[in-house]
C-alpha cells in the first residue's frame, strides 16, 4: 500500500465555444467519465490519473458542456480549481482575443493561485490566423505556459495536462 498523500487536482477548461475543449479532454481521457458532482453546473467531469515523478496524480478535469456560450458558468465551476486550460482555435482570431477575457474571468471567479496554461488548438488545420509568436509573447507577459495542440491528431495534448499537473504539484 502506498502512503502517498491523496493528490487530487481539479482542473477547468475555459475558452469559447467550438475551440475544441471537449475534444481535448476526450483525446486525453479515453472517454472515462465520473458522475457530475454538482448537477446544477451542467458540466462534465472526467477523471484521469497521470504519473508525476514517483507520484500518481488524479486529475479531475471539468469541461463546460457548452455553458460558456450563455456566460452561465457558475462560481462552483471554478471553485477549488488548482489549474485552468484556456483554449483558443488557431484558425479563429476572435477566439484568441477572447482568451484574455477568459483569463480575467478566471482571475475574478477562480482560486487566486490557480495555474494557467494557454492552448492554441487545431494545429492540424492549414488556415492558421493566430501566429504562435503572438500567443507566446502574450503568455510570457502574463506568466502563462503556452502550447499548441491538435485534438484531432493528438499532437501536444498529453503534454498540456502533464505540464499543468506538474506546475500544480510544485505548489504543494
Ligand atoms: P468545444 O465547444 O470547445 O468543447 O469544442 P468541441 O470539442 O466540441 O469541438 C468543436 C469542433 O471542432 C468539433 O467539430 C470538433 O470535431 C472540432 N475540433 C476540435 N478539435 C479539433 C482539432 O484539433 N482539429 C480539428 N481539425 N478539429 C477539431
UniProtKB/TrEMBL annotation:
Keyword Acetylation on entry: no
Protein name (Swiss-Prot/TrEMBL): Ras and ef-hand domain-containing protein
Keywords attached to this entry: Nucleotide-binding
Transmembrane segments: none
Keyword Cytoplasm in record: no
Domain of life of the organism encoding this protein: Eukaryota
